[in-house]
Amino acid sequence: KTPELTGTVTDSCCNYETVDVATQAHFHPLLDELRTLSFFRYYKADLTKECPFWASNNQCANRDCSVCECSKEEIPAKWFEQDAAMREAKEKALNEPCDEQRGEGELSKIDRKNAAVGTNFNPWYTVDKDDVEQDNEDNLIYVNLLENPERFTGYSGNSAWRVWKAIYEENCFHSKELCLEERVYYRLISGLHTSINTHVALDYRFGDHWGPNTKMFVARVGAFPERLQNMYFTYLFVLRAVGRYREVLLNYDYSTGNEYDDKRVNEVLRALFDVDNSAYNASCRAPTDSRAVLFGFNESMLFSKGISVAHQREQFRLKFENVTRIMDCVTCEKCRLWGKIQILGLGTAIKILLADDIHDLPPLQRNEIIALINVLHRLSESIEGVSRFRQMEFEDALKS
Ligand code: FAD
């Protein structure tokens, strides 16, 4: 049976009951609409990369594992223009020596080019010839996330286990001083793992129809309070990052050419951030911060003690970069797609929370913003899903 969780979510400033109520009444319905709007429903991904850690060439052929690419007409035309401008700028930058005399590196040239074409599509990677992790533009495809939902695919056994194991093993910071970061890393990964397995149980294939699988949920998630606790922590972590990025998100250019959706994105985002007078905000306020909006988590507790702060931050960032690479070892294409989105979303949240100055937050790439909102939506769906499973367990118990 799935336990009721009470009290404060460890490492946060929020209690379980408040999170449940605010998620069901406020966050989840709004996020559930936001992720359907044009800007948030198309994700650009390279699903063809080889696993850099072990041989894993037996891709799953199950129909539930496959991902369908969008037709070109579906994608906002503006995005293709931005892609072409990015490609051109990158190629040009690669062929030009770095203009050190004017103090201008390759990255700033791309920034300048972006500014010239009027995009707010900021590069995540510097143009580095040694950066093997750069996506190959030729292999990038656009995917409609609504048509490729994250759900049960049958991906399991050795292959899935090996990937999860490799991800958990990244949690080795080689220093006793970093125990808080180790705990946070573990909790974020375990929370994401719980959330993914909750989605699998929520949208399970029973022969020719889909529905929630209560037994599977209890066996993989409900029977483990610690896994649930980690999921609430991860949710609050990402919620806090989105709250911290509020001003940028509210002023971002979301135009895709779809008049209704473009207008609606701003309305929904405004509504999402409108929690100033809610019980949630009163109960989830970080004690040190009076700008209490979507808080519930005090990131100043992190990355501030021990050896060199810069070193800690770099370590944390590198861990997530490695996890991104491990995603290429997932042999189910749909799981790989959603794994990549959610890891990028978590990495983006970390990037936002690591920034010292709330007035100098890092610029984000379009895909990062899409991933951030989608991972928050997936987590809110899981939080809401746990309540639904509890209710189903209760009704099953009454029947028997
Ligand atoms: P697993 O979930 O594979 O877990 C392996 C071991 O990790 C467990 O035995 C347990 O010891 C430990 N563990 C389990 N949960 C936690 C936790 N929350 N915290 C800490 N430790 C834990 N399957 C789908 O059907 N659809 C998907 O979209 C999908 N996406 C995936 C994405 C990724 C990146 C990966 C790696 C797997 C994905 N899977 C997906 C597979 C799914 O997550 C499970 O691996 C699979 O269902 C088998 O589950 P399991 O119960 O055997 O244990």
Q: What does this protein look like?
A:
Its cofactor is FAD. It is found in: Endoplasmic reticulum membrane. It comes from Thraustotheca clavata. The protein is mainly alpha-helical and 400 residues long. It has 14 helices and 4 strands. It has a two-stranded antiparallel sheet. Strand 3 and strand 4 form a beta hairpin. The longest helix has 34 residues. It is globular. About 10% of the residues have low confidence. Flavin-adenine dinucleotide binds next to helix 5, helix 6 and helix 13.
Outline the fold blueprint.
Elements: H1 16-34, H2 38-41, E1 42-46, H3 77-95, H4 106-117, E2 140-144, H5 157-169, H6 179-202, E3 204-206, E4 209-211, H7 214-222, H8 225-244, H9 246-251, H10 259-273, H11 279-283, H12 309-326, H13 333-354, H14 366-399
Antiparallel strand pairs: 1-2, 3-4
Bound molecules: flavin-adenine dinucleotide.
Subunit structure: May function both as a monomer and a homodimer.
Main location: endoplasmic reticulum
InterPro entries: Ero1, ERO1-like_sf
